[in-house]
Amino acid sequence: MIHFNEICKTYHSERRRTVLAVRGLSLQVMRGEIYGCIGPNGAGKSTSIKLLLDLIRPDSGSITINGLPVSNEASRASVGYLPENPYLYDFLTAREYLAYVGRLSAMSPASIRSRSDELLAKLKLDQATGRRISGYSKGMQQRTAIAASLIHDPDLVVLDEPMSGLDPLGRNLIFNLIAELKQQGKTVFISSHVLTDIERLCDRVGIIVQGRLCHEGNVPELGMPLDELFLQVVNNIGVDEVK
Ligand SMILES: Nc1ncnc2c1ncn2[C@@H]1O[C@H](COP(=O)(O)OP(=O)(O)O)[C@@H](O)[C@H]1O
Ligand SMILES: [Mg+2]
User: Fold this and answer.
1) Ligand nearest to the Cα of 212, by number
2) How far apart, in Å, are the Cα atoms of 190 and each of 34, 35, 72?
3) Are residues 141 and 188 in the same domain?
């Protein structure tokens, strides 16, 4: 369903500093698979995800979703995305925001209504639907952003650190939601630092270090707990010799 083919991405920041954020990344995710993308801060996970959503463009290489190049917006017809730092129009209530996002996906008012009811209840936001998002806690805002990424019932869900800012209860809600997506046969691409969740949810994981896929495997066949493997892979590469 997702195909990254030899992707490179360099950022040019102030004072002509260049950052090689992604260096020859090739990776595939099959339909119905839950794929976990892990790696230290600055490894290039969010950059790869933004490239997948065509929010930024690679220097070289190609990415397809369902065989369509991501430069073709039809590739995103059924994709849900939770950004690393979601921006919500916080003068709206959660229900208004979901209605806005649903309309962007051309949903009917009736399906927006029923889908919002369902997601707001699942994410335990139903008490807060009449209040503006600006008054929500960080965790409630994160849960609203997750609801927005799922409102149109997408086939592919891309979640950039979905557990960020959540308390253990919130984490558990999201965990169950992702497990449900898996049961429904959806494809999920998720980046996270919560390795216990990745280990329990994902079919396959890829460890990205310095913009490269350094290790990939089926979760049941990793041969050791994921946190141990993560440290081993990252320490072998030597993260501090960066750039
Ligand atoms: N807009 C940007 N301009 C310049 N450098 C960036 C930008 N975004 C990310 N980077 C750099 O690219 C590298 C990869 O970042 P990122 O993809 O956010 O990593 P991760 O999500 O794995 O923590 C880091 O070195 C980061 O500082
Ligand atoms: Mg990131």
Assistant:
1) 1
2) 8, 6, 22
3) no
